[in-house]
Specification:
It is a single chain. Strand 9 and strand 10 form a beta hairpin. The protein has two domains: about 5-200, Thiolase/Chalcone synthase (Peroxisomal Thiolase, Chain A, domain 1); about 210-350, Peroxisomal Thiolase, Chain A, domain 1 (3-Layer(aba) Sandwich). Helix 2 (about 35-45) runs parallel beside helix 7 (about 185-190) and helix 4 crosses helix 5 (about 120-125). The strands form four sheets. It has a five-stranded mixed beta sheet, with helices on both faces. A four-stranded mixed beta sheet has the order 8-13-12-11, sandwiched between helices. With about 350 residues, the protein is of the alpha/beta class. It has eleven helices and 13 strands. The longest helix is centred in the first third of the chain and has 27 residues, at about 70-95.
């Protein structure tokens, strides 16, 4: 069986950024007509979100301006093309690959709607070959960065000597609902930011980069209501159940142990946790679960602090940090994310 390796990871950020402390006055103005107790509660959510700064495809003033779904989505489409092109180019340069050498392109995004999907524009803009295989992944939310790795791995495992790119571009700010005063919207506004990432993978006989041992998905029963978007006349409205951290906690042993056993390893042998920072509460939940096993998720917490939750792209920012470390041969890493479905997605890496 041929090996599949991660050749490179790159990230790209949109042009606008604000520190959380500078966004709070805008939030206060936005909530001006709301009850004072409610306003204080929302400000507390922003202050306690463990996000110091976030990036955006539009200026903060634009985010807080009432515009139509059509207008916001048009900005999403325009900026997604730019970010996607830029991050794919960056990754190709990092690994010294030409665009035409890619055999498979997976684009990942759930925060806007475009048909044809982003991959079609990347093929055009960067001159990918005409028989490149496309796969757009749109409805898997925060978990989709790992889904993309799983699909790329499956394709490359059965096709030796090939190359794949996973490009994740997300703009949660394009989905922000000004007339939705639900707690789900407040929490998502406090934790989310925009960003893009690209992972290049290969089934060629190359020696650099960690190899993927295996990947898998775990579906939580009777949990489709827990996370996602409702499509309304105003755009994509956030659905986020407060029971998400607790549900993860209950299923955690089933998510982690059988998956690792399948590949002949165990949590004791996992040195590196590459975990998606869904938000402060999910990070704390997973940290508590892994902490009892003497593991840390410092890189996850740091990515949340510096960028916020950029949906599917975020876990790839965490992965990039691990690719920049000096990691000993034979050490293993577990990539883990959660998303709508409700599902957990996992990939096992070995350096």
């Amino acid at each position: 069986m041929n090996e599949v390796r991660v050749a490179a990871v790159a990230k790209e950020l949109p042009p606008y950024s604000r520190k959380t402390e500078d966004i709070i006055p805008l939030v206060e103005t936005w909530l001006g007509d709301q009850d004072e107790r409610y306003r204080r509660k929302v400000i507390k959510i922003f202050e306690g979100a463990a996000v110091d700064e976030r990036y955006s495809i539009m200026s903060p003033e634009e985010v807080f301006t009432m515009t139509s779904f059509e207008d916001k989505n048009a900005i999403y489409v325009r900026e997604a093309k730019k970010l996607g092109k830029s991050v794919l180019q960056k990754a190709l340069t990092k690994s010294d690959w030409s665009a035409v050498s890619l055999d498979y392109i997976i684009t990942v995004s759930c925060t806007g709607i475009m048909i044809p999907s982003l991959d079609a524009y990347l093929i055009e803009d960067l001159g990918l070959k005409q028989d490149v295989v496309r796969l757009p992944v749109t409805e898997m939310g925060c978990a989709a960065g790992v889904s993309g790795l799983i699909y790329a791995h499956n394709f490359l495992k059965s096709n030796p000597g090939k190359r794949a790119a996973v490009v994740a571009v997300e703009s949660p700010t394009a989905t922000f609902q000004l007339n939705d005063f639900s707690m789900a919207n407040m929490v998502s506004a406090a934790i989310f930011g925009d960003g893009a990432a690209c992972v290049l993978l290969s089934s060629e006989e190359i020696s650099n980069g960690p190899k993927i041992i295996g990947g898998g998905m775990y579906h939580f029963p009777e949990a489709t209501h827990m996370m996602g978007f409702d499509l309304t006349n105003h755009g994509l409205k956030m659905v986020l159940d407060i029971a998400v951290p607790e549900t993860i906690s209950e299923h955690f042993p089933d998510i982690v142990h059988p998956f690792l056993e399948k590949y002949g390893t165990s949590i004791d042998k996992i040195e590196h946790l590459i975990f998606h920072p869904g938000g402060r509460k999910i990070v704390q939940t997973v940290e508590a679960l892994f902490g009892t096993m003497d593991k840390n998720i410092d890189d996850t917490r740091e990515v949340l602090r510096a960028y916020g939750n950029m949906s599917s792209a975020t876990v790839l920012y965490v992965l990039e940090r691990f690719l920049e470390k000096e990691i000993k041969e034979g050490e293993q890493g577990l990539v883990l994310s959660f998303g709508p479905g409700f599902s957990a997605q996992r990939v096992l890496l070995e350096w």
